[in-house]
Model the fold of this input.
Amino acid sequence: MSERRPHQPLRRGLLKASLWGSVAFAARPLVAQPLKVPDWTRQLGRPAGDGTYGLPSEFEKQVVRRQLSWMARVPESAVNFTPLQHQKGILTPSGLHFERHHGGIPAIDPDQHELVIHGLVERPLRFSMEELTRFPSVSRIHFIECAANGGLEWKGVQLETAQHTHGMLSCSEWTGVKLSTLLGEVGVKPRAKWLLAEGADAATMTRSIPIEKALDDIIVAWGQNGEALRPEQGYPLRLVVPGWEGNLQIKWLRRLELGEQPWQTREETARYSDFMPDGTARQFTFVQEANSVILSPSGGMKLDQTGFHEIRGLAWSGRGKVAEVQVSRDGGQRWELAQLEGPVLPFCLTRFTLPWRFEGQRQLLQSRCIDETGYVQPRLDQLVAARGTASFYHKNAIQTWEVTNQGEVRNAQV
Amino acid sequence: MHRFSLWAIALTLLAGCHTAASKPEAGYYGLGQNLSPAEWAPWDLDVAPDGTGLPPGSGQANQGESLYMERCAQCHGEFGEGVFPYGSLIGGIGSLGTTAPVRSVGSFWPYTTTLFDYIRRTMPFDAPQSLSPNETYAVTAYVLYLNDLVPIDQPLGPKNLAQIEMPNRRGFVPDPRPDTHNRACMAPCTQEIP
Done:
């Protein structure tokens, strides 16, 4: 057994969590003191059932969704980021799932909500929520990532924390009926090659989806993490399109129309297309390619002690399962294999860890995801060489966190 | 075991596989109510690039101008120039392949039907789906007129809207990804692949 190594405090005293929800580790007092018996041991706690819906501890108030004020000038069409740096496992609590709406959050009465399917089908049908939930159902754990996740840093660092660099990403267990089951019930005509999905919100968001994906693994979901969908996530009904960009996963779903060609809606032409240096725009760029980010430590945090730390992060791929995650501590020169924490599921966040000793020397931490297709997460310079810096969407570049010799963790590009 | 029994078991298994693999026929679950075109019409707003789905009606830019000034200009600007933080509807035609590309409705959007559909379903932002078909045609015509794509007095309707070719009609290309080829060398790669 190795000798116990004392942790060296880098700075005495307690650091407060910053405005951005950074984590600071409280340094232990230098002089040993007897343990206190706190008040909560000497008196009864509050009774059970004094609240109708349980909430996180009052000491977790820093774990909240956050916006970027300059991106939230139109509040009904804004982004609210998941505090990924605080996420403990692969599931994002429903109240922390990132938000992106285009016409605000509607308040839909499920008893009045209907889904209609028409177009190139044998039997056009309308379904009440009650009818939909009677179909054979599935529960699958999938991430949802906005196509724009990371898209603010093509030209350089401008955000502090993982919440803002990667927080248009969340992962939930989704429960619903497979879209293929519903399409079987209406009978798809052979000429149907595309499907238009439409929301019931003020944006009546519409996207065209290829029939192959519709018949494969798309879920028409009403459940999220064991309860009904949250209003921000499409209550009472949404599409879950595993591995593909979030915008396709139509919330407040009310209509599916089958046709021969894509509809060329605003959200698949003027938006959610990837603008190239030659002036063309890539269209129907659906897949969220393999990506990863170290979350502990990550931007805005401060390591107060040297010694053992576990490097922790999340990896994911829109092409299936994560096969491997590698971690570099020198800005991408040398790499070590990280441990994958199960379960490793397709189109799902996968946790990775690596034991690490921080000895007060500057480090450039990176992670690199390799998915089951063999695709290796690229460096930013490789992405820029392929796409320039104006394509905005689908930036899955390797993230670098600089750990200074003082233990401060900063967003960096190398 | 007799050969016959083995065959019987094999056939039974195959039959089971067949049952499991074949999809239920349409209507198998008997859930949902029949839906007629008259029922889905109020929700069926989408317009295809060939004009399918365009409603009856007509409008021209000089009819849309006053409506635009009243309901659109506060965000999009009197000339379509955009009022911060809203982007521009005009300009940039021919600029996309240059070092200073400007992406507007005129320079970037591929189809007039995309514009009509978007206005019809979402605009004005604070009162979506409040415009009549004639008003939607008129405002669409006005935005196209601001981009010098139609004359101010040209009526647009279901017969001719989709015929107007937008400047960037051919500017969209399929997804070629994966377009990066990083390698997972554990130490610096001896041969760098861009």
Remarks:
- The radius of gyration of chain A is 23 Å.
